[in-house]
Amino acid sequence: MQMHEYVYLDNAATTKVDPEVVSAMMEHMLVYYANPSSSHFLGRSERQILENARQKLANYINCHSNELVFTSGGTEADNIAILGVAKMQSEKKNHIISSEIEHKAVLSSLGELERQGYSVTYVKANRDGIVDPEEIERLVRPETFLVSIMYTNNELGTIQPIGQIAHRVRKYGILMHSDAVQALGKIQFNVKDLGVDMLTVSSHKIHGPKGAGALYIREGTAISSMSFGGNQERGLRSGTENIPAIIGFVKAVEMLQADFWAQNEKIKNLREYLEQSILSQIKGTAVNGCKKNRISSISNVNFNNIDSDYLLKRLSSEHICISSGSACQSSSMEPSHVLTSMGYSNDSANNSVRFSLSRDNTKREIDYVLDVLVRIDRDVNGEM
Length: 384
Hints:
Largest sheet: 7 strands, mixed
Helix content: 40-55%
Number of helices: 12
Shape: globular
Number of strands: 12
Distance between the termini: 25 Å
Order of helices and strands: EHHEHEHEHEHEHEEHEEHEHHEH
Strand order of the largest sheet: 2-8-7-6-5-3-4
């Protein structure tokens, strides 16, 4: 591999923006640039463009367009869902159920509510990284008003039984939120079948731009605004909409529809080739979490006696990009909260890294990564 080339296997953190997405965004920067809240004809035209984009996304996840709020990304959508619903509750309803393996956008929002006096119960995932719907139902109290469980874990790729959980809590009148940022583009789902009340999606995980996301809010859900201004996006997310990013987001969604199954099969085959090669060529390695009930693009691997920080630096020096977990906590020296919650030791968590693939990756790239990994293992553990 030439020095100017690199292998990018950190697609769970963000993906490369597709050239067709860039072209669609450029048109809306240079031609359709009016403020959609303006009353003149250009503003009205931009408003129509915005609403057409909203309808396309609504069609993809099977909801009404008025049930979608565009946001700056997954973090803001999670914040609006959790904090906005909590703000509407009376003092009698102050309990939330979530899991220990959630994304920091959810965990930090819940932590803020705990500081305000709300009660939060965090369920553990099993060794496969899956939460138990029965356990969640057992934790329901009269004062429980919200359950928030991610659809797909961002470090392991494991898929949670969201439909089962939503079905169990709905009979108690409890709202169900799911962070589906890592699920969009990897799982074909619709919000009506899932039975959720709120669901978070984001653009930059599916070859769209950063700075765009959306929150599905089932019609009739009581939720309060967390920001104030011009009353855009149903009053829940004031501020002039980022039309180019939204257009890019929806363009990326449209491209998912064209070859969803073929692309996911290609990614799955590359991931399985990567995993099988690592396990057969490097002693003591293991794949963390569930091997079957997961999306096609993520592989979390434990490397025997190789510290993840050292491994990442060595790979980076060879122009290979991976991560030790969520990009949002990459600067932290703490072991993965996901793996330790599942019962892995700190040492095991500190020896684990995440490979996350996309449709852009090739077998040639995987072969290069494998060659480098074998060389690093020999440097650390000696010749086989």
